[in-house]
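WARN no homologs supplied; continuing
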Amino acid sequence: MFRNFQTTRSTLLRNSGLSSFSTPKSEAPITLQVLPVTNHIWCVRRPSYLACSYLVDTGRGIVAIDSGMNSGAADIFTAFKKLGLSPTQLTAVLLTHWHNDHAAGAAELKARLGVAIHYATEDASFFTRESASRGLRAWLGEKIPELGPLVLLRGLLEEAPPRAVAADSFVRNGDLVAGEFRVLATPGHTPGHVAYLHEPSRALFCGDALAVVGNRLRLMARPVTPDLPTARQSALGCLDLNPQFICPGHRAPLVQNVPAEIARLRSFLNSAQAWPLLG
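OK structure emitted
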């Protein structure tokens, strides 16, 4: 089922009318894009921060990795429409971490579709809004639109996604979720950050544990990485899986020269060099 990914991806790009993964040099605002990674995996990319969620067709249903940055789950519902698929095919949502540019749509997907929500217990108090800000910070956060240049500030002020969402199961390192996704604990960006390796395709959905910029494997910026030593070990853990595709939470997946990029970043992480300011 998962053979000839690169050939199929090229055919999809030619025939679908969708854009390729090259990021505009100016990174000007773009419409929501649904981009094929393989013949069974799609990247759902939002203009704000080029935030990426993913849909994976397992043959028994569709699994979402992260849920977009709109609390009405517009990213995911629009993606299904663009693909000519029904949202009722969605069977599970695997969340990498609580930040609103990745998890805002989860509550709506659970409410409307009854899908199972999975995330790590270390981020649970954020997902359920038990640890959300109160008072002035909360008031200021609510005034910031979900989309646009200040959306990151909204999440930092509220310290929670816009709507609470409970987990149907808490994932732990080594778990197999939704039948095909191996969990890797990747704390550092948040305490409960996790990545998911789709074992049939060897695609790694790494959230903000890794970054891809201009087809180069990178790290998230230092100011948004509170625990640098832990994040370094998490990044190395991702690389040790030797994935065939690397699907980060922003910009675009890495689908070419993956082994060489893994080797290059591993060498950097194993050196004594400081974490780059801008990742």
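The chain has a mean pLDDT of 86.
OK
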